[in-house]
Write a structure and sequence with these properties.
By secondary structure, this protein is α/β, with parallel strands linked by helices. It is built from eight helices and five strands. The protein has two domains: about 110 residues, Resolvase, N-terminal catalytic domain (Rossmann fold), CATH 3.40.50.1390; about 90 residues, no CATH class. The N and C termini lie far apart (about 65 Å). About 5% of the residues have low confidence.
């Protein structure tokens, strides 16, 4: 399996270089013990409370883009401290990447408190996703109840039926607005019909249209 080694110390003092080198050496040995293919070694000197770290951002980017299955660390505090640690752990586990640590001499074993917090974060995220989907459905239903018929109004519905459509005819935004839908509801409704559009974009397009009429 492909793996990334992540090493971190909290300060940029020269004396910390020894700690970084020791972490790297021990993690390379741990990777060899488990026959992992190390594709990147990230060394970082920064506070664990800081989320804006080049190394950790690179790590999160790599596990999304590459076929990375394992991240090796000295212990979970090397990823971060406090809330930053929980946020990073959540991002890593969300990508179904395993964590191996020197402190556990294998797969990372989280404390009971960390496991509980991560479980709560996961539940909150799931309910946020459900609420988002409910808002889309309600927006679509409200539009239909007010006479909106997508099969008649969206002229490119059939031509690009499975493709993402970014451009939305301003006439549809105006029509939905006249039906007393909010900009958020209009955006949710159009996203439900396959248009990748935000509330801000809907508002901007509508305002531009109104301004053009006033000129």
């Amino acid at each position: 399996m492909k793996a990334i080694i992540y090493c971190r110390v909290s300060t940029t003092k020269d004396t910390q270089e020894t700690s970084l080198s020791r972490q790297e050496e021990e993690l390379v040995n741990l990777a060899g013990k488990h026959d992992f293919e190390v594709v990147r070694i990230i060394r970082e000197q920064a506070s664990g409370y800081d989320l804006e770290r080049d190394g950790i951002l690179e790590l999160l980017d790599l596990i999304k883009r590459k076929d990375i299955k394992v991240v090796l660390i000295q212990d979970e505090t090397r990823l971060g401290r406090g809330n930053a640690k929980i946020a990073i752990l959540h991002c890593i586990f969300k990508e179904e990447v395993q964590l191996y640590s020197i402190s556990n001499n294998g797969k990372l074993e989280l404390s009971e408190s960390d496991s509980m917090v991560l479980s709560i974060v996961g539940m909150v995220e799931e309910y946020q996703r459900k609420l988002h989907n409910i808002k889309i459905r309600r927006g679509m239903q409200r539009a239909v109840d007010k006479g909106y018929r997508p099969e008649k109004n969206l002229s490119n519905q059939g031509a690009n039926g499975g493709r993402e459509r970014i451009e939305v005819p301003i006439e549809e935004i105006v029509r939905l607005r006249k039906n007393e839908l909010t900009f958020a509801e209009i955006a949710a409704t159009l996203r439900g019909f396959g248009y990748n559009i935000s509330k801000a974009t809907v508002h901007r397009r509508y305002k531009e249209h109104i301004d053009s009429l006033a000129e």
